[in-house]
Specification:
This protein has 29 helices and 36 strands. The chain is α/β, with parallel strands linked by helices. Strand 1 and strand 2 form a beta hairpin. Helix 9 runs parallel beside helix 25 and helix 9 packs across helix 26.
Length: 963
Amino acid sequence: MKDFIIPDRDFGTPAAKSKQMVTLTIDGFDVTVPEGTSIMRAAAEIGISVPKLCATDSIDAFGSCRLCLVEIEGRNGTPASCTTPVAPGIKVHTQNSKLKQLRRGVMELYISDHPLDCLTCSANGDCELQDMAGAVGLRDVRYEAPPAAEMATHFRPKNNSGIANPNYIPRDDSNPYFSYDPQKCIVCSRCVRACEEVQGTFALTIEGRGFDSRVSFGMKSDNALASDCVSCGACVQACPTATLQEKSVIEIGTPERSVITTCAYCGVGCSFKAEMRGDELVRMVPYKHGKANRGHSCVKGRFAYGYASHKDRILNPMIRDSINDPWQEVSWAEAMEFAANRMQGIIAKHGRHSVGVITSSRCTNEETYLVQKLTRGVFMNNNTDTCARVCHSPTGYGLGQTFGTSAGTQDFDSVEHTDVVIVIGANPTDGHPVFASRLKKRLRKGAKLIVIDPRRTDMVDSPHIRAAHHLALTPGTNVAVVTALAHVIVTEGLFNEAFIRERCDWDEFQDYAEFVSQPQHAPEAVQMLTGVKAEELRAAARLYAMGGNGAIYYGLGVTEHSQGSTTVIGIANLAMLTGNIGRPGVGVNPLRGQNNVQGSCDMGSFPHELPGYRHVKNDNVREIFETLWGVKIDNEPGLRIPNMLDAAVEGTFKGLYCQGEDILQSDPDTKHVSAGLAAMDCVIVHDLFLNETANYAHVFFPGSTFLEKDGTFTNAERRINRVRKVMAPRNGYADWEVTQMFAQAMGANWVYTHPAQIMEEIAMTTPSFAGVTYDLLEEKGSVQWPCNEKVPDGTPLMHVDGFVRGKGKFINTEYVATDERTGPRFPLLLTTGRILSQYNVGAQTRRTDNVVWHDQDVLEIHPHDAENRGIKEGDWVRLASRSGETTLRATLTDRVNPGVVYTTFHHPDTQANVITTDYSDWATNCPEYKVTAVQISPSNGPSDWQEEYNAFAARSRRIAAAE
């Protein structure tokens, strides 16, 4: 039973947050709890369990099941303990003969309309109804419907005469991950309330009244799959019976043990209990004490783990002389020898700067640290980069310049204290759904929302939330909009002078204020450029400046532009202007795309920085690592990913070790990426599957999933979470062990035996991690860096008393138009993004049942643009740019404005990045994915290039038969 796996006690109702304490007596025991606490929870605090069915501590009290009745001395009746708050001095009785009789009667009524198939039920041993029947001492059910009665039961398909029961509803198995069995429903409403209060989707409701009441997925014609349900699993977790049940539990059985670990999808970093039966994973259950997710989850983390055992997974090392040859399966020793000989030969012939590495944002901190150590301490160069190059590298630059550190300022709990939220260039409901649920909950309590996005995302308008302002800007004009917001704040005197004088450089502010006050930055001056009405922009600026605690959350719609770094700087300027830094409910918060992209940056994956964001040119920093590693570290920055590819085409970069990234699918200008990879003499791909990059590889090291390793991930809020091994690696080794074996084959003397030792080395060399140990993480659950002698418990909020750099720095943000322009040949603007059910390049999620929701990339186009081109819903269309062309199906929607089209990049069949250009951010080379001039025209199906590429990919993935 799950609650005996890891103690995860349900207190019945949420904890009260009052600082005022109240003392009462329950069953003769005094207890002191915060004011507003329910009697049920107060009893649970001292170990007294009051029977319950409709109550659980993840949702507000409801009081419908009447099982938790108590008596209070001096009060009439038997109130429900879940909805009755504590009061000073009251004396409560939870157990006496009267209460026992009442509870037993209530349970009899529940059981009279419930099938008694407990032995064969999938919830046997994990059913609260079963537990409560035992708790109240139910031994017999006196109520039995007459055989011929019309209103007999809900669980018998037919009555004794063989006549169909009109009340019977068959089980709904439409959702790929869970079943809905109405015959076992007790109408406690926990699932409905979880969908409303925890997830915020409002997909479930109770239809009918009295005996006819039943949980419904929206309209009568809707099933679970066709409804608004987003499959987050909150309803399944809340259900006390087998009404809503994971199909994996039905198929495998009740789990017998569990391990707490961290999700390997987006940057929220949700904590889960991986519940096991033997060495088989039964289900992933969100861990209620996880500080990032607070017991919630999304469809990916909760259900989409099947890729770990998918048939496409490669479990044996493979090598080949040429990318035109089939793969040969070999032993690990043979693979290491082959790879080392190739790389050593390249270095001997072309020099030590001719090879490099790409670290993975899906691997652990410890594994990433070793990969960058491989290039610096074994290859002897700084040619290391990571996927942050193509996503949040402008965050590192922009926040580093203005605040002094390259990370978000808040923890996720901070959103509960915000009054005004700006979401710019992010789609949290699809990209970071667990955070989005927390944000929507705050919005339903009255906080105001400003959305800055070319597309009408679900944050703009969805059940029970609506943005106060949606600034639907033209793609590529972020800087103009952000600067115009600052113009309003400065010219209308809405800035926080006291904060600026105390925390920032006043002279720099004066220069910035003079710049931003210039008339060309006024909303009226830029509205034709940005497409945002001046009065709407002014109202948004006033709301952010004067609405109370103001928080900014942003995503790749900010960073993946030619002025990505400038926009990040502009966002930081807004926060400093208004004093929205250094306390709960405010701040500047990048929503990181991958589970450990923050950690990969922290670990020194950039070519100019050693771990902890310290430049390689600094002698004192290099000395720390040189002393420990026993090598001489190059003092010149290495190559970024685009530079590696350019150098490969030129013939000076010849070898690449690529761990856990698929640059051929994820990076821009696919044809240029493929040309660079094809020009290399040795490409080593270290991954779970033969991804698109592996088409050009000579060595394949099979990787391990997050379920098969120990380590840590660092999420978007700088939270360092433990990753724990749930099962043995199917490939034989964790990824850190593979990297170590390769380093040893190259001549290094690495002798790590556990990732804890690697973390010790990280702590020795990296000030922000100086206090981090596995023992501390076991004790605290997680910590947020900086974690060192000054802040041994970590740092939930940054820049509280001062900025890391000293004084906050205002920097002018002049708008410079991108070189990518529309014109007669390419009159539309393409922007790209993600969808809820898929993740990044889809290598994991495409190998799960998530394809039910999104089995191909589609192009969103406004009906006006579609009509002009003769395009109808579902038609094949040709999407062409100056870089290339592809085909995909169109869907007509008003989510995008006329002149703008949108697609995702999850499916390699589409290869959306063959369209994107090589334009990039001026400071970091982050590609400009979000602005590409395109033309759309009708098509008959896949393009010649797609067909040629698919044929090449099929040839490249051939594996020779074992001899």
